[in-house]
Design a protein that fits this description.
10 strands, 44% helix
Length: 227
């Protein structure tokens, strides 16, 4: 089973995709994670990617597609994949169609006001990439009650999983958040229209914490006959 989890920055793609992996025996591929690893390299491409990430714009399709195709050639992807952060453009979606069959798109929906608060409060382990969030959100927007509790580590600043240092990514800082959302609206949202008439689609309003939402998503996937 191959899934795409889609939604704007801060909607929970990384958290939900990581937690869906063990439920379905698939692997997660995050182009964002791949790029951040590449940005640490002291190479011309690594430096270029690092500059792009800090600016808040998308990495060009030709670089993204090359990196993704290489990752998909590894044997662990044969059992199934959940794509986090890819495809972000219609051209990327068309490229993906040529190399793998997508069974379902999961589309996470959340108001921009909450997105900005969540992104600015997101923290990530410097070593293993585990995700945390210090925001405590309890709001009603358009008659929907959003209760999103913080996801704090047991020890402040220390990852529960590996003991690594928890940091705020440069592209999660408030000054880049609004630019990232603009980029999403302009370039990525059309992918929803492209996919909706082609494959199974699951809209998910993210109004509770991951423990509740992940179970709901997993149950909805099973009800659609996928496993």
């Amino acid at each position: 089973m191959n899934l795409v989890i889609f939604g704007p920055p801060g909607s929970g793609k990384g958290t939900y995709s990581s937690r869906l992996v063990p439920k379905f025996g698939i692997v997660k591929i995050s182009t964002g994670d791949l790029f951040r690893e590449m940005a640490k390299e002291n190479s011309p491409l690594g430096k270029k990617v690092d500059k792009i990430l800090k600016s808040g714009v998308l990495v060009p399709d030709e670089i993204t597609n090359e990196v993704l195709k290489k990752r998909l050639s590894q044997p662990d992807t044969k059992s199934g994949v959940i794509f986090d952060g890819y495809p972000r453009t219609v051209d990327q979606a068309k490229f993906l169609e040529k190399i793998i069959k997508i069974d379902l798109v999961i589309n996470l929906k959340i108001p921009e006001k909450i997105l900005i608060e969540k992104i600015s409060a997101r923290r990530i382990c410097k070593n293993c990439g585990d995700i945390y969030n210090v925001a405590d959100i309890n709001e009603i927007i358009d008659d929907v009650d959003y209760i999103l509790p913080p996801m704090n580590p047991k020890k402040p600043g220390i990852c529960d999983k590996c003991g690594g240092e928890i940091i705020q990514r440069n592209d999660d800082k408030p000054e880049t958040v609004k630019e990232r959302l603009k980029v999403y609206e302009k370039q990525s949202k059309p992918v929803i229209d492209y996919y909706k008439n082609k494959i199974k689609f699951l809209d998910v309003v993210v109004n509770r914490g991951p423990e509740i939402m992940v179970e709901k998503i997993a149950n909805d996937i099973k009800k659609m006959g996928l496993k």
